[in-house]
Each structure stands twice: as C-alpha cells, then as structure tokens.
Amino acid sequence: MMRQTDKRAALSRSVLDLAGAAAPAAPAKPAEKPSAAGRGIVGQALDVHKQGLLERVAELEAARSSEEASGVRLVELNPAQVRERLPADRDGRALRDPAFEELKASIRDKGQDTPIVVRRAGPGYELAAGRRRLAACRELELPVLARVMDLDDDAMLALQYRENAERADISVWERGRWFARLASEQGRSTTQLARLFGISQPSIVEYLKLGRLPEPLIGRLTDPRELSLSDGRRLHAAASGDAAALERMVVALDAAEGLTTREQLARALAAAAGKARAAPVPRSSLRGRVVVDARGRKLLTITRSGNQWIYRWAPEVDEATVSAMADRLAALLGDEGGLSEH
C-alpha cells in the first residue's frame, strides 16, 4: 500500500502535469514515468480529468478556427458601437409595447439568449438583425451579445427579413412599409425584392399597396400593425388617385379617434364610398380639418382660436407656396369685399 507521502507526491505530479499541458515544456532529461499502480487512484483520476480537459480545449479551438475561417465570431459590444444603417423594419410602437417590456425583463433577469447580428463598419458595427434586443440592452445599459459576420448589403437585408419571418412577430404592415422604403430609398424593383427575399412578385406588390398607404390615413389609426393585406388592397383602391375620397376618409378618421383599428377602418371605407356624406357637413366640423393633396401629403390643418380661424401649414410646404396661397385667398375674399390685408 502507498504511504501518505507517496500519495501526496503523486497528486503534486498530476497537478503540475495538468497545469503545464497547454504550454510546451523546456527540454529536460527524460524521467521514468511512474506506473499506474505507483500513481494510485487519485493520480489516475487526475489523468482522466486532464485528458478530458485537453479534448475539450481541442474542440473549442477547432470551433473558433472554423468561425474565424467563415468570418463569424461572437463578441460582447457596447450598444453605442452599433449603428442602424438599414431601414427599420419595425414601427416605433414595437419598442413601447408590452412584448418589448417582457423582452427587457427577460434580458435583465436571465441574460440575452439570442445574439444580434452585425458586420464591421469602420471603427464600429452595423446592425443586420436584432433591433429590439439592441434597444433593450441600450435601455438596460448592458453590453449586447453580437455575432459578427462578413455580409454585403444584400446579405444584410436577406438576414433581416429571414429572422423576422422565422420569428413570426412582425406585422404585414411593418413588412410592407419596409419593402416600400427599400423600393424608394434604394431603388429596388419588385422583381429584385422578390428575388432577394424568395417570395413571389405579386406578393411584393400586395405588400407595397399596404406599405405605401398615405400617412394622413396611417397616422390616424389606433394601431396600423393590425391591418391585413386585404385591408391594404381596399384602402389603396379607395384612396388611390381620388383626393376627394382621401379627404373624406381623413375627416372620418378624425371623428373616429379612440375607436379600435377595425372600427376606424370600417368608417374610413364607408366615407370613401360617399356613405358618410348623406347630410351636409356642418361648419363646426372644420375645426381640426386636415387638407391633403392628391398623393395624400398633409398640406395644412384648420383650427380655431376664439373667433379666429387658423391655418397651420405643414413644415414641408415652402414659403413661396404659402405666399402664393395667401395672394389667391386675398383675391378670392377681396372680390367679395370680405377681406382687407394688414
């Protein structure tokens, strides 16, 4: 039986062997390796443990080499290092709703399970996928776990689309608006969009009808994320190329403030069809009226203060246009003797 001093010596040798396994040892005079019987049970157990550790290190090194070879690596970043260059695929409500608060609570309490995806861009990074996770880490003032990949612009967009399609937590209106932005800001045709995202061209057209609905309509809905592709077709058909119908829809939505999105939709479509014009519009309904052009762009809002009517022009309307309209208004009312300029 091994003496206690022999057991301690065997244990010391095994620990030293384990500590020096990762670094090459200096040339030394070969020493006679103790027999298994001489090392005892403790020494043999440490040998087995050391071998397992070495195998695990080899596996990790192989995985790291594979990721580096493919241009992929996992890092923790300061959220301030990540820039969002691509058009946002989510409405701002997605960063304020209960689902976002649940995501923040999960990251705060349990950590971030799924990394965002970024690519290198100068001294920082550009976001490809994971906008809500990035926003959550920003608000929590936590580092964000990120997978760094070598991606071109098309690969960035395809990854952004695929992640949301797989997670099934993005609305068709948000997707339609995203497609519309890609078409307008990057000059992407319906054919290019269909090929890039692997969906049919007619489907892209349907998404664009929904995503291009005029802001005066969309901005008055309680939550446009509840709209379907079918809703988009009907609203597009009702408002497209008909400024009068669009104006009636806007007025109807102003009167339907606070209702559900479905109720607002029904009233807007009824107004577009002329069903809301059975009786003359009373003068008092001018208060808060929004005037839009044929493309649905807001021109001015009519309000009242005391005995005065106030026309509030949209910021996009330039000074020359406002001046020209003032001249026309003066001429119109001046002919009737109802206006004098001061």
Automatic annotation (TrEMBL):
GO terms for molecular function: DNA binding. One of its GO terms (biological process) is chromosome segregation. Residues 75-165 form the ParB-like N-terminal domain. Pfam families: ParB_N. It comes from the Bacteria. SMART domains: ParB. GO terms for cellular component: chromosome. Belongs to the ParB family. This is ParB/RepB/Spo0J family partition protein. The lineage of its organism: Bacteria, Pseudomonadati, Pseudomonadota, Alphaproteobacteria, Geminicoccales.
